[in-house]
Amino acid sequence: MTKIQAQNVGSPLMNLIKLRGVPILQQLHLEEKLLRTSSDNWCIINDGTDDPTVVMGISGKPAELIEIEPVLQDHMPVIKRFTGGGTVIVDQGTIFVTFICNKDLIPGLQPYPRPIMNWSSILYNEVFRGIGKFSLRENDYVFGDHKFGGNAQSITKNRWIHHTSFLWDYDIKNMAYLKVPKRAPEYRLARGHLDFICCMKDYISRSDFIDGTTKAVGSHFSLNSTQLASIEVPSNAEFTPSTRLLSKQELEAAALSQTDESSA
Amino acid sequence: MALRMWASSTAKAHKLSCASKSHLSSAFSLSRCFSTVLDGLKYASSHEWVKHDGPVAIIGITDHAQRFQNESGTSVSKGGSFGAVESVKATSDVNSPISGEVVEVNTKLTETPGLINSSPYDDGWMIKVKPSSPSELGSLMGPKEYTKFCEEEEVH
Lengths: 264, 156
Description:
Chain B: One of its GO terms (cellular component) is mitochondrion. The complex is a heterodimer. By secondary structure, chain A is α+β, with helices and mostly antiparallel strands.
């Protein structure tokens, strides 16, 4: 059963799915399926993911981005997702917010990376009004010059997805699985992970963030709260997700190339 | 600006479906908008260009489109359309404006993906297609219509 909230009657419809602890691979498969096979607009909020997981962008190279030996040793899962962007490690302290939209949903918004990024910052400005010194810095959400939200997108002919992993909290030891990327935003200034990022929990509670985001989305769209089980896509929709878990063999091969490079 | 390309041999076996709108025009040179628009090409509203070259059509993305992929370290990958370009945070599908069989993929883009930015109409071509319905070329925009289309898009 769905429930339409009459906050913004007459505005375009946005289906809202609130999840908790859903595995990130399952979330990404759902998102890719909705992007490719649905013609509706979706906002997905997943409050944490149960198992710590490394998630790389579509062209991520494990040898360049992760410390493979400890990843293998500790059996840390590594996913390559269908969107662009960098590498993150996600866990119960990560809150995910995703928008999957038709390209004509927002009047005047051109379906390109930068305009979509800018639109998202307008929405989150409402969420963080009076809280910290929030801004969109290059492609990251920051308080001051400390990153707490990383973004990635995929744009198809008629739709786009913009998804964010918010660092509500993190486990310091998990950061050791990630290398400092070669390609980094200018404002990072060669800072290590712990000097570069910050926790949202120092600024806002989990429930206030999720409620605030829901309210902000509701101020732009007519919200239709939907349960995961009731999502329907066209029965003739052919879809195979490209988001996948990397195999142990792939990671071992990457480790070998990492060793070869360092001894060269 | 640099782009990295992923070339796939399976591209050669792809059959592509038309994704164009109908705009007939006479072609003449215009480059009044910020982006360059060339004579002798046809254009789709999704910002791909087509050059009919004998039995094949050459396809790439326009200068207008590559401007929005204006971040360093970009890649091209295969997606639901014939491929995708990647900028720092986003993948963007590239759609074929015409139907046909892909006969060649520009493998230079694997090593030098920046060609899509620096030479979108020449060395940055992406695929060559043997058209299955040559009349589809007539339904694409000419340079004047495409220039106007870009200008109107940029106003909003």
